[in-house]
Design goal:
Radius of gyration: 13 Å
Pfam families: Response_reg (PF00072)
CATH topology: Rossmann fold
Order of helices and strands: EHEHEHEHEH
Protein name: Response regulator
Keywords: Phosphoprotein
Structural class: alpha/beta
Organism: Phyllobacterium zundukense
InterPro entries: Bact_response_regulator, CheY-like_superfamily, Sig_transdc_resp-reg_receiver
Number of helices: 5
CATH class: Alpha Beta
CATH superfamily: Response regulator
Strand order of the largest sheet: 2-1-3-4-5
Largest sheet: 5 strands, parallel
Strand content: 15-25%
Number of strands: 5
Number of domains: 1
Length: 125
């Protein structure tokens, strides 16, 4: 029986994070689509094939909150995981949302959250 890989999209303006997170996800058996900005993702034809989206909050141009809002309009079923290096935002959001990670984050915890999101155990933010 063929079991296709889940497609995880990563949107972050930090190239090192895109590469390291991409390596982590691929090592866990996921297919990865990496985008250096929200606009590049939105201008691509990738949205229909994505199973889960991981996006940085603080990016030049469109931030992660706005990207999440636009994605929710187009794909309300798509799980979105937000990440940030801004600790004041992390403290504000952490108690309310389980699909939120502060950089640097634990890779295994992120993989577990993705697994839960893909199986419908968590609601998107």
């Amino acid at each position: 029986m063929y079991n296709p890989k889940s497609v995880i999209a990563i949107v972050d303006d930090d190239q090192r994070l895109l590469e390291s997170l991409g390596d982590l996800l691929e090592s866990a058996g996921h297919a990865v689509r990496a985008f250096s900005s929200a606009q590049i993702l939105l201008n691509s034809n990738a949205l229909p094939e994505i199973d889960c989206l991981i996006t940085d909050i603080g990016m030049p141009g469109m931030d992660g909150f706005e990207l999440r809002r636009l994605i929710n309009e187009r794909r309300p079923d798509l799980p979105v995981i937000l990440v940030t290096g801004r600790h004041e935002l992390a403290e504000l959001l952490q108690p309310k949302h389980t699909l939120f990670f502060r950089k640097p984050f634990d890779g295994q915890a992120l993989l577990a959250a993705i697994g839960d999101a893909l199986t419908g155990k968590e609601n998107s933010l």
